[in-house]
Amino acid sequence: MTILVVEPGKPPYPRQIPDTLQAMQEIVGGDIDATYPYEDPVALIFNSSGKFAGLQPNRLLRLENGDPYDVVCGTFFLAGLGGETFVSLTPEQLRKYESLYSREMLFPLPKKKERRNEHER
């Protein structure tokens, strides 16, 4: 199955994987969940506990008007939809979503230094 992998802070890339739950879980680093934010028959598959596990913010999900409504944390991938299963993305879908997710990347904010009170040494 041909998918598009999107890792935090990196450009997306196509990848061939076996059509198995184990292969999908290895990519996202845990249990999978899916959302369907596009009009195309495409699923966004992500780590179901990524936000709660503190995975790095990756990409924003946006409404049609461009306003963000959610953030995906951790590595995710896109796959086509074929009835009840995930299928390969078409070449057109690969190009479209590779372009979409190449334009916008979230990077982690630097950790704040702890401030000491002036009276501490």
List the helices and strands and how they pair.
Blueprint: E1 2-6, E2 13-16, H1 21-28, E3 32-35, E4 42-47, E5 57-62, E6 68-73, E7 76-82, E8 85-87, H2 91-103
Antiparallel strand pairs: 1-2, 1-7, 3-4, 4-7, 5-6, 7-8
Structure description:
With 121 residues, the chain is of the alpha+beta class. It has one domain. The chain is built from two helices and eight strands; from the N terminus they run ββαββββββα. Strands 1, 2, 3, 4, 7 and 8 form a six-stranded antiparallel beta sheet that branches. It is globular. This is DUF3846 domain-containing protein.
Descriptive keywords:
two-stranded antiparallel sheet, six-stranded antiparallel beta sheet, DUF3846 domain-containing protein, 17% helix, globular, 121 residues, DUF3846, alpha+beta
Assembly type: single chain
Describe the main β-sheet briefly: 6 strands, antiparallel
Roughly what is the average pLDDT, rounded to an integer? 88
**Helical percentage:** 10-25%
Counting structural domains, the number is 1
Shape: globular
Q: Tally the helices.
A: 2
Which strand-content bin applies to the residues? Answer: 25-35%
For the termini, the CA-CA separation is: 59 Å
Order of helices and strands: EEHEEEEEEH
Briefly note the structural class of the backbone.
alpha+beta
Low-confidence parts: none
